[in-house]
Every structure is written in structure tokens, then in C-alpha cells.
Amino acid sequence: MTSGSTIRVKNNGYSVHSRLIGEKVEARVYAERVEVWYAQRCVESLPRLRGEGKHRIDYRHIIDWLVRKPGAFENYRYREELFPTSRFRVAYDLLKREHSANRASREYLSILHEAAREGEAGVDAALGELIRQSRVVNLEAVRELMASGTSSEAWKRVEVDAVDLANYDALLEEEEVMSC
Fold this sequence. Notes:
Radius of gyration: 22 Å
Number of strands: 6
Helix content: 40-55%
Strand content: 15-25%
Number of helices: 7
Distance between the termini: 53 Å
Shape: globular
Largest sheet: 3 strands, mixed
Number of domains: 2
């Protein structure tokens, strides 16, 4: 275990819960996963990274620490890993456009903290609605949309365009067929 909440396994970095900082853990490597054991219990099962020099940082592991020290976010080595979806990234960019870097970081981290506590899908959907409606992005607006249920309906809605089967019929009418 390093001094932060990351461990190195087969030359790759993985985040673990911050309560394990300073503790001795055991990593068991399998074909598809890495298990983290502490006090003879499996406390984490992570997808195994292939190759070397890669990292997998789960914002849920470090969000409590980051919320207490928001100034660290701007220069955090693995900052790009703290945008679970593109909507979170867009929200952060909008916050930076409207506020100072420090204020934008604090507001974004509070939204990310809400995602860790209340569910990433709901917060993601709320951010999507705020962005779509060109509304102000902040924690209060996210909570308001989540409470109203408006955001949850938006991410459940799936629209599929009708398929024009004439295009497929035209392929079948081709006389020349290539074979490998």
C-alpha cells in the first residue's frame, strides 16, 4: 500500500478505499480480476488491467478525501479518471467557465460526492438534463432534478430511428458477390 489510497500490482496502479491507507493488504491476481484482501477478507474485486504502466482510479475510493481538500483536485495526477461519464466532464468544463478554478473544483467535487452517495446514474441523468436545457450546473440543481424525478425519466427514455429495409433489399439484389 502506498501513502495514498492506491496500490501497485504487476506495475499497474489501482485505487482502494481510503480507510486502507497505511494498512498492509494482499493482492491476489487472477486472469480477469485483482482481489484486494485485508484482515483475511476480500474487501475489493477490481477488473485486471492488461500491460504495464496503467491505472484504474475509482472516484468512490477517494471522494471523501478530495471533498476535504478541493484544492488538490486541479493538479491531481489521476484527475481525468474522476469524470465517470462525458456529462461529468462537460459539467466541470461549464463550472470552470463560470467560476474560478478553486470554486469550480469545489462545486464539481460536491456533485461527484453526490454521485458516490446517491448513485451515479441519477446524477449523470440530472447533469444531462441541465446541460440539454442550458441551465446552471450546480449541486442544488442536480438535487432538485433528482428529487423531482425528471432526470430519471430522461435517461430511461430510449429512441430508436426506424430502419429503411430498402437498403438491405438493394444489397441482396447485387449480382456479384465477393468471396474471401
